[in-house]
Structure formats: structure tokens, C-alpha cells
Amino acid sequence: MMISYPGLSKLKTKPVVYEDVIAASDSGTLEQLKELSSKRKAIEDSINASTFITEAIAREMSGGLTSRCEQDIQKLEKYLPLLNNLIHHIIVNAKSRQVMYWITEFKLRWSSVLSTPSLFPFQGPKLYQVNDIYFELGMSLFLYGSLLREQALEVLSSDLVQSATLFRKAAGVYSYAAHELNTNLSWTQERPPEAISGVLSVMSLVCLADAQAVSARKAQENGSTGGLLAKLHYGVADFLVEAINILQGAAKECKDISPRFLDFLLCCKTVHELTSYKYHVQGLRTNGNIGIGIGILRWALAKAKKIIPKEESWRLVYHQVIGELDGLLQKYEHENGFVWHEKIPFVDDELPLPQAVRIVSPLPYHPQKWERALMFKL
């Protein structure tokens, strides 16, 4: 049972025409800059919904891909190698004042999906402008990771193995982006949450939590014991605890992070903790420790009922899980009262909780770079 945070790929951006900013010294370089602009425009048109091509034409242009998400992933995979090549040549010519001037003229503008919503939505999303080519790389990678995550959710109902792999791939992209931005992006301009290395690290952990949740579902289908399922779900919660701690630190750096995102993480963490407790107490009951199991259920439910998720769809999942534990508690209390008569520990007593086990890791992202010579007028 998973709680989703939809819309992470719903970024908006303003056009970038590279050949209007950078002066090429030969026709080959000019053509490559135009190709870079063309690849980016394909992404702009898609995420800005500024093109009206039919589904049939979009499918033909993508080589037969039917998913809009997969089509956008393909566009980014054509754009990012060209962008990496440009960044490489900018670094090579970093001592040139002319190149440094061009960089400040890019006027790279992106919206945010993780910032606090505007009080005036009719004005459209706020656009953050950061004149740094690494901002473009970071936002493109965030979009790429979000689309991979979206694709993982698309295939979740049909292929658990592929879904978990896509979540791990997205985690690798976010992790790489976090390292690149922390190392290279200027700190002098206001940035959206998506361009904060800490937030990108959080997204990587969220994707790992998703991948482990899918792996737990696969383990359940394969008939794994409740003890293993308890450890796997507690491992999901463990990923999210780490993410929450990092996000709270990132919030000091970026004041625009939406409280809804933290609410999402807290809700997910609690759902997987409760699911873990369910399997854990079932194992305790099987081993003759029903009293301890009842104590854990009472403690867990008392804590969980203090939290009320703000999103209606999250509340439905949350209350369903709480309902399952309530039913299990009533069943065990009734059974203990008539059969076992075991002593039930107080809430304040030290209770044996599940052990967190992590079984997934990011699939490392290795950026592609089309090594083509670029000659600038310096």
C-alpha cells in the first residue's frame, strides 16, 4: 500500500536559445548549438503543453513509444548528452571573460513543484531565474528522475521487478544531481527547492523507499514470512526517517519548501511503520508472545492517531492501515482474555520493535556526453 506525491514532473520552463547567447566561431559549432536548442525545445513544448501534435504523431516521432512519460524520458536522454558536452567546453574555456559573460546571459528560468503554492494561482507558477548552466543541468536531472519515478508508478501494477528497478534508477539520478549541484552551482541566487542538493538527496531516499516497498510487495507475493516483511517495511520507514532529517536541514537553506512535502514523508513513514508492526505482532503471536504484541499495537495506534494527513487520498490509505491494526488489536485482546491471559506491557515499557533492513541501493547514474568539438568566439 503506497502513498503517492503526484505532479513531480509538472515543471514549467521558459525557452533557451543557445545560439542566441553563445557566439560560435565555425558553422559546425553553430549547428550543434542549434541542435541543443532544438532538443531543449522538444522538452519545453512537452512540459509546457505548448504543442498540439496528436498522440499518433508523438508515438511515431518517438519510435513507437505509447507512454507520454517514456516519450519525455527519451527527449531528455537526447538532450542531456549535448548539455553535458556544452558544460565540458565551458569548463575548458572557464578563464575566458567572454564565456563567463555568456553564462550570465542565459536567463535560465524554471518553476517549482515542491515550493509553497502561490497565493495568486491565476498569475501562473513562480519562475526562478538562475544564470548558471549547472542550474539547467540540475533542473533537467530533477525532471529526468521524476519521469523515471512516474514510469515506475505506471508499471507498478503489471511488473514489480521493473518498477523497483526504475525507482532505483531514479534514485541514482537524484543522487548524482545532488552531488553535481553541491559541487558546482553558485549559492548567490535564489533557487527553487529542486535545485537544492539536500532536497535532491531526499528525493533519492524517497525513491529508494519506494523501491523497497515494491520489493516488500514482491516478497509478500512470493510467500515470505511475516518476520521478513516486518523488517522490509521498517526498512522503508528507515529510509524516510533519514529523508525527513535531511529535509529539515534543507528547509533552513530554502524557505520555499512546501509543508505538504514534509507531511507526505511523515505520512509514508507512519504507514510503513504500522504495516511493519502488523507483521511483527503476527509473528509474536505465533511464537506465544501475544501480550507483547498487544502492547505494541496499543502503543503504535496511540501514536499514529495523533497524526492527521492533510491530503484526502493519503488519509484514506492512512485510515485503512489504522483500521487493520485496530481490528487486529481487538482480535488479540479478545483471544488473550479468553485463552492466554498474558500480561500486557504498559505503553511506557520497552517494547521489542522490528529491526530495519535495507535491501535496495541506487543504480548509479553515468551521464552520457557526446564528445563533439565546440569552437567559441573568445
Automatic annotation (TrEMBL):
Protein name per UniProt: BRO1 domain-containing protein
Top-level taxon of origin: Eukaryota
InterPro entries in the record: BRO1_dom, BRO1_sf, BROX
Protein family: Belongs to the BROX family.
CDD domains: BRO1_Alix_like_2 (cd09247)
Gene3D superfamilies (alphabetical): alix/aip1 like domains
Taxonomic source organism: Salvia splendens
Residue ranges annotated for the BRO1 domain, each copy included: 1-378
